[in-house]
Every structure is written in C-alpha cells, then in structure tokens.
Model the fold of this input.
Amino acid sequence: MPQNLVIVESPAKAKTIEKFLGPDYKVLASFGHVRALPSKQGSVDIEHDFAPKYHVLPESKKHIDAIKAALKGASNLLLATDPDREGEAISWHLLAALGLDKKNPGKSIQRVVFHEITKDAILHAVQNPRDIATDLVDAQQARSVLDYLVGFTLSPFLWKKIRYGLSAGRVQSVALRLVCEREKEILAFTEQEYWTIAARLGLAPGSEFKAGLVEVGTKKLGKFDIPDETVASGLKTALQSGTYRVAKITKTERKRNPSPPFTTSTLQQEASRKLGFSAKKTMSTAQKLYEGIDIGAEGTVGLITYMRTDSVTLSNQALTEAHDVIGAIYGKEYALAKPRIFRTKTKNAQEAHEAVRPTSIAKTPTELKKYLTPDLFKLYELIWKRTVASQMAEALLDQTSVDINADLASPVPDGPFATAQRCGLRAAGTVIRFPGFMKLYIEGLDDQDEEKEGLLPPMAEGAPLKLNELLPEQHFTQPPPRYTEATLVKTLEEYGIGRPSTYASIMNTLVERKYTRLDKKRFFPEDVGMVVNDLLVAHFSRYVDYNFTAGLEEELDQVSRGEKQWKPLLKEFWEPFITLLKQKEGEVNKDDLTTEALEEVCPECGKPLAIKLGKRGKFIACTGFKEGCKYTRNLETDASEVVEPVLSEEKCDKCGQLMLIKDGRYGKYLACSGYPACKNIQPLVKPRSTGVICPECKEGELTEKKSRFGKLFYSCNRYPQCKFALWDPPVEQPCPKCNFPLLVKKVYKRKGEFLKCPKEGCDYTSE
Done:
C-alpha cells in the first residue's frame, strides 16, 4: 500500500500526477471546496469575534470518506491544492474535515505547491514541501466572512425594499454600479455635429494618396472648428481652386515593444477580443489545458501553467525555451540577446506566480492541434503566441508625415475662415521596416480595429500635386461605449477591485440575477439592476465606492502578508455597516423605489397611473389595482394608441373559434376570440420540431425555441415534465465514443461545421 497520500482539487489532475509520482504515491481529489459557510443566517457568530461556523458540504462527504479510508494506510499526507489563497484555504479546511486540524504525531502533514502539471514541476514540489501558510488562509477567511456579512444582511434589505430574491455582493454591487453609471452617461449624452475634409491627391497616375485638412489660414483646426455643412461647403469651394505642393516631409523611426505574457485578467480580455470567449468560458477552457491533455506517446500532461495569477514573470527555463524556439522558427534576428523582463503593474498584485504560459514552449500549436478540441486549440495558440512574442525583437517602423500647402485662387467665402487664401493638409503613413514580434502577434484593442498601417508614394519637398477629389464628411460625437466583458474586467483591475480569479463569477452573477443582460457582447442594465444600483448608491454610497472597495482589497492583501489581523479588520467594517443598515431600515420606503407617479389617469377607472417595477422590468399600471382595476400596458406604448387585435388564420384547439393576435407585456401572442367563454392562449410562433427523440425521457421530441433574449435553443416538447435542453442543433446519431443517442452540430470559423457529443465528460468531436 502506498505510504504517501497526495490530495489535489481536481480528479483530472489526480490521474496525471499519480503517473508522475509512481507506485509509492496515491493521489486523490477533494473535488474543490470541502467546507464552506452555509447559505443561511447565523453562519458567522458576530458576538463571538466573528467566528465562522463552517459545515462540510453535502457533496463533499463521500470524497472526505474516501480520503479518510486511504489515509489509514499512509504515513505522509501531502496537500497539493491550487497555488493561491483559495487553494491554501482548501488545504486548511481539508485538515479540519479530516479531524487533523490539531497536531497528529502519527502523520506527517506537508503542503506542496506547483504551478504547472509536468513531471519536473511535480517532483520538485514534492521534494520541497512547506507548512500551510496561515496568513493566506486568514486572508481567504476574511474575504469569505466579509462577503457573507454583506450578502446576508444587505440582500434581505433589498427583499423588503424592492423585491424578494434579489442579492447584493461586496464586489458584485460595485461592478453593477460601473455598468449602470455608463448607461446613465449614454442616456445623458448629447451628440455634437462636426465635419472633416479630406483630399485625394496624386503625383502621377497610380500614385494617389489621401490627406486631411488641418489648417486654414493661420488657424490650426480643432475637432469642432468645421461645425456644419455650410462651413464645410465654403471650404470645399475654396479648396477646389487651389494649387497643391509638398511643403515638408518628416521621417521618424519608431520602435514598438510587445505586450507582456498573460495574467488572468489580460487572458480574459484578449480571449474576449480575439476569440469571442466569455470570461467564464476562458477560465474553464484554461482549466482543462492546465489539468492535462492526452497528447499521444507522452500521455496526459498539463499544457499551460496555473491560470490564476497576477504575475507577468517568466521562469529562466521558459525564457531559454522561448529564445531557442524563436531562433529555430523565425531566425536569429528575431531572438533577443538578453531576455526581456516585465514588471507587474497590477494594483494590489497578489502572490508572485509565473505568467500564464505554455509548460513547454517547444510544443507549438500546430504540433498539438490534432489532440485538441477547437476551443482548446484556439486558447492554447493565443497563450503560446503571446508568450513567444513577448521575447521577440522589437518592431521597427518608419513613420512618414507629409505637410502639404494649398494656395487658394478663390479665398474662403463668408464664415469663420472668411478671406483665408491658404490651407494646410497632412498625410501620414507607416512602413514596417522590421516586423519583429509583429510577425507573430499584435495585441487586440478595445472598441476599435487593430492598428492599420498605411503606405505613401515616394515624393520630394516642393513637388506639385494634383487634386483628384475633395471628400467632406459629416460626423457626430459618440457616447462612451457600453462595457464588454473585456473592458469591464480591465476597469475592475484598474481600480483594484476584486481579484482576476473572481471576475468571471461576478459577471455571470450580474446576468443570472437579471441585473444586466449581454446583448451583442455588451452589458445593458435591466430595470431592476438600475433600481438596485440607485438604492445602493443613494443609501450605501461608501460600500459601493470604487476607492473604498479597492482599499478593502489592499487590507486583505495586508492580512495575506501578515501585516494585519483579520478579525480586527472585520470589526472595522462591520460596526459602521450594520449601524447604517439599521438606520436605513426605517428611512427607505419601498414605494419610493418601485413606483413612480404619472400625471396620466387610467382609461378604465380614472385613477392615477404609475410606473411600477415588476419581475420583467418596468411597466405602467393603475394605482387602483387593490380596488380591482387590472389595467396595465408596456412602458413604451403611447396611451393615445389603441391597439386593435388582429384576426389570425389559426383556430382555437379548444373551441374552434379563430384566434386573435394580441400584444401583451411580454410580446405578441394568440388569444381565443371567444374570450371570456374560452380563455385559451398560445404562443404566436409555434415551436418547430426537429424530429429528434428526446434522449432523456425518450417520449417527447426536441423542438426549436427562442429564449427571452432571442437566442435559439432546443428542448423537449414535454416540458415541464421533461427539462432536457441543448443550445446547438441536435442530430439523431449516436456518439461513437460513449453511445449517447444524439450529437449536436457546431460551426467554427476555422474548422467549419462538425459534430460534437453533448454529454458531459465526453470529448468526442468529428473531423
């Protein structure tokens, strides 16, 4: 029987690590957290110094029992949970759940840490164990208790004052504030008109280029100096009479350096920009690459280092590998003589791990492609390119700026530039003299296209130019863009709010709680999200303040470094917080938050109408509801509009009369024209059957439906008796690998159309 028992978090890791360690080691998984604060009141004993009352999670009991059984025959226990605060806390909780929280002289208990699942890294970790870092555990406990105190005191307050089932969170509420404040900026934005004028100029046929107007007379043009079409037309008329010549050519050499290797947050941002991955998808895909992929003769091996990190550091081994790979693939001129060292700029940077990088840079994406699913390949390729590019030579760019004089035969007519007889234009172009790292990788940009390089024809100072065309163009200023997942992660990180490992769950919670929705990959606040945010900002401004939340993160970091004790930190937070909450219990009125009076009266009973907040958002309703008036309408519907129901060709399946197309609060639907004798209603668009038998109940058929956000999905027509559903079109063909009765059809730009098994745990994909 093995004398050494190793505990990791994931069963996928357990199998791989056991192969590396050999027969003297048995590796079991805790399957993540084993203890937590129960989701109920009283899980933290505030009166007794904030003592947390942890419970073993029900789903963890069988795993704990398996570990206890294996521990009986082992003399050494090695705790190899993830190398971060959460992993440190899981090891500590595991000892408590096993009854080993006190010193047990019969067992050797050690903590081992590794950042990649390769044989060398695992053996090195086992040979260099340490004790559990109690400062990291205390920091994680403080974070858990803080989140509990906020969630289980502020959430019930929201239930009383707005609606049951709402939630508030220490970091979640601050992220919601960012989204809502951006929406208010957009709603308050007033667009402003402005014009630009460009000229197509040429030296000879085929040598045309474009230059923009930058100067009129002696005035340098600002953004709004051409305010309307009248001024633009006057300038166009004058410019048509001009003679053009090259006044000055300026050439400068520009050097451009690559971006650093990925941290957790920059990986999430770049995967969103370049791959269209959500933060949640990025992290789950990275987890699979970290835990290990079967790559043929080598067996299962982790392909990337640990994906929860704030560090941009690369190990000496990785730097050497990158240098050799760059020289072999791209040539010696692309490899650096000395490695490029990056410094972490992240505010409140946590444990100094390595950056997210391939465990072996020599394993190119092309070489591994046949072993990876499309998503795994795309993310591995992104990480590999970013890592390698960070150690490639800088790019050399020749930037050319050409100033052009236009002497006007006809001066500018009346207007702000009246009588001006000369104009200045400018053209700019960039030539890549040596691509360096740009040969492999260029970082994506938020809310704009990646950098585009332009070329200018050869020309000399004093050379005459021919005017081919003038291009006046109208523009309007644009409001700030709504947040994408990438820009929201970037903003949270810039403020120092939360931790990169939590960003995916924060954004997921905002959508799941219906506080926001993602539409075309941008966050839109829902009505209930705006109301919750307004309440928190108006009455709990300190606790949703960006600087306060970031400052609290810094204090948690001080705990992790042993500079601050965690229980005094909780007391400093709790006492003013609960005092304010009790004060607001009496001050805040539910109707003030959820009802907004209108000057309009109900067309049915004559009582005042009001805007109310319902489960589906805001709507207009009669204030005489309690007296029996049921009048409601959509917020967008004008009161003067009389919406007449339209007779459809459908017949009621209950009484045979024709159905009417009606417009309800949730959209159009069919209602029987025999109402009130027949109250049958049906969806306007009938679900389309796919003809595929439901694999779960084996009675119903899978039908095509639309979610409330318009996304297609496929579910059993026996719902709610059967709740089986898929996002992808089903194909009635059994999986060759696990024999599941159907596959789904997926389409990727790079791979095209292919079939995939939807069963959890099966990775079958067709070629």
Remarks:
- Residues 141-189+481-587 form a domain with the Topoisomerase I; domain 2 fold (CATH 1.10.460.10).
